[in-house]
Amino acid sequence: xxxxxxxxxxxxxxxxxxxxxxxxxxxxxxxxxxxxxxxxxxxxxxxxxxxxxxxxxxxxxxxxxxxxxxxxxxxxxxxxxxxxxxxxxxxxxxxxxxxxxxxxxxxxxxxxxxxxxxxxxxxxxxxxxxxxxxxxxxxxxxxxxxxxxxxxxxxxxxxxxxxxxxxxxxxxxxxxxxxxxxxxxxxxxxxxxxxxxxxxxxxxxxxxxxxxxxxxxxxxxxxxxxxxxxxxxxxxxxxxxxxxxxxxxxxxxxxxxxxxxxxxxxxxxxxxxxxxxxxxxxxxxxxxxxxxxxxxxxxxxxxxxxxxxxxxxxxxxxxxxxxxxxxxxxxxxxxxxxxxxxxxxxxxxxxxxxxxxxxxxxxxxxxxxxxxxxxxxxxxxxxxxxxxxxxxxxxxxxxxxxxxxxxxxxxxxxxx
Length: 416
Ligand code: PLP
What we know:
The chain is globular, with a radius of gyration of 23 Å. The chain has helices at 2-8, 14-21, 33-46, 65-76, 89-103, 118-129, 144-152, 172-178, 201-212, 271-284, 290-301, 305-326, 363-374, 398-413, and strands at residues 52-53, 112-115, 135-140, 156-161, 183-189, 218-222, 247-252, 265-268, 341-342, 352-353, 359-360, 376-377, 379-380, 390-393. With 416 residues, it is α/β, with parallel strands linked by helices. It has 2 domains: 28-57 and 306-413, Aspartate Aminotransferase, domain 1, CATH 3.90.1150; 81-302, Type I PLP-dependent aspartate aminotransferase-like (Major domain) (Aspartate Aminotransferase, domain 2, 3-Layer(aba) Sandwich), CATH 3.40.640.10. It is 41% helix and 13% strand. α4 runs antiparallel to α11, α5 packs parallel to α11 (290-301) and α12 runs parallel beside α14 (398-413). The chain binds pyridoxal-5'-phosphate. Pyridoxal-5'-phosphate (PLP) binds at residues 57, 117-119, 143, 189, 193, 222, 224, 252, 254, 260, 265.
């Protein structure tokens, strides 16, 4: 009797248990490679290695003082309760002010939804508008999360390959050729993470002309790197005839105000879509945190001097990274015009071997080699839909960047 009871309580092997525990939707996408590399770098550092992190996706600057003061005041003023799902009215009005000031776009508070980071904004939009089986056109290389969110929503990712020769930008003819009656949205970032590509006003006007021929397609325009632009004024596709009513602009405080940890993103969208996103967010997270919202009002309505100082420093680093990459044999680079990344083509190193005889077959192998041998963390281009490249962030000090680039130079030289 005793021994029978004992047999019954034996648990199944853990693998079987995990397969039953997790829903199949989790298998549709993977962990962001950017976060994985940062984690591996931390682990190596914990073992005592001097790891330089060039996988970083956030500014290495402090939050502007006046924004910090606004947050402290919000705490003292007891802005501590649940917030309206789409954001406090004064934040949404501040967002409208920003769009008028910076982009000459007129919105009202009903067009705006404030979220817990632009990542949630993107999740809201994609899950609100894309039905199962509908296509979302995404030019490669793209930010890691785009494809994962479309896959989560059971949409179909339709990649459009771009190359360094075209500056990682699509042409109107290529866009026209890829759109089908089943295309629900076109999703892109300008300035682009990871390539740094920035579309000019003329280029966006030409794409808008194509979109006017295909009224079923919404444009999701991720403008989170708006201020980190080395070529001049930012341009939004929403400014062109007929575009504003079918464009969802995604933006936030993470990059331009160095506020990644505060988690504040926002969008401007046609009212119906904003309402849909509000409904979804209402069941997911509710309104984003009260203190960050009150700080956002000040960030979005004050001078951008601190932001511009930061951009000046990014530009100095960008120029140095471009120069140093130019000295590396077999590396091809489209010079970034925005964001804080370089995305060099490194495929000439595929097929080579390390000193230990290990094969470098692809960008994943090369990143792991650079991490383990040179102790520099970068991100494989395959995470961004382009396996010929690696992403190098210049959100690190000039001294660290120079040291890291020298290590990369030597590590590449040692491949044969
Ligand atoms: N869009 C792009 C292109 C990004 O690079 C990032 C962050 O790395 C985001 C959106 C998300 O930003 P947030 O921190 O506001 O969620």
